[in-house]
């Protein structure tokens, strides 16, 4: 399976969910356009100061900043994003230095680790998405800058990175759906117990 296939699959899945399942609002429309534009510009790159940067990175970074600005506790969320950035950059160097310790495919292992950390440090779904995006995007840039200082130039925002990012976002979405489902079941059980007690 070629690099980038998961990014395209999951992007279309997210677009379908947003377009057909979210309540109609300006926010929904902006999210849908954001995902479509990310898919459209993914094959294109820009050369900036000797660095090859995918246009998707700029688009995702711009959208992520707007998403985080909408949330409460902006400074706190930026600190959380910094934590994810450090964690993701460390994972990339771990893979570079000791690839033998990578016991599962990178896109699966990294997304599970990052997704788990984001879930632990944040509660709101959109804050989690913003923190994950910002942390991984900036982590990818920092990693490339550090490698460049040693004469090793890597493309910033290559398809395997977008695949990993997509898996992490999918994991956060699934966890949020399960959490909401659990709360609904809990509320239903509480109401049922109340009705049974009243009936007695």
Structure characterization notes:
Keywords: Membrane, Transmembrane, Transmembrane helix. InterPro entries: YphA_Bacsu (IPR014617). The chain crosses the membrane at residues 6-23, 30-46, 52-69, 74-94, 100-121, 133-153, 159-178. This protein is mostly helical. The protein has one domain (5-177). Helix content is 78%, strand content 4%. The chain is built from 7 helices and 2 strands. It has helices at 5-21, 26-41, 55-70, 74-97, 106-121, 125-149, 159-199, and strands spanning 45-48, 51-54. Strands 1-2 form a two-stranded antiparallel ribbon. A hairpin with a 2-residue loop joins β1 (45-48) and β2. The N and C termini lie far apart (60 Å). The mean pLDDT is 86.
Question: What is the residue-mean pLDDT, rounded to a whole number?
Answer: 86
Query: How many helical stretches?
Result: 7
Low-confidence stretches: none
Order of helices and strands: HHEEHHHHH
Note the main sheet: 2 strands, antiparallel
Number of strands: 2
What's this entry about, in short?
The protein has 200 residues and is mainly alpha-helical. It has 7 helices and 2 strands.
Keywords:
200 residues; mainly alpha; 7 helices; 2 strands; transmembrane helix; YphA_Bacsu; transmembrane; membrane
Write the layout of secondary structure elements.
Layout: H1 5-21, H2 26-41, E1 45-48, E2 51-54, H3 55-70, H4 74-97, H5 106-121, H6 125-149, H7 159-199
Transmembrane segments: 6-23, 30-46, 52-69, 74-94, 100-121, 133-153, 159-178
Keywords: Membrane, Transmembrane, Transmembrane helix
Pfam families: YphA
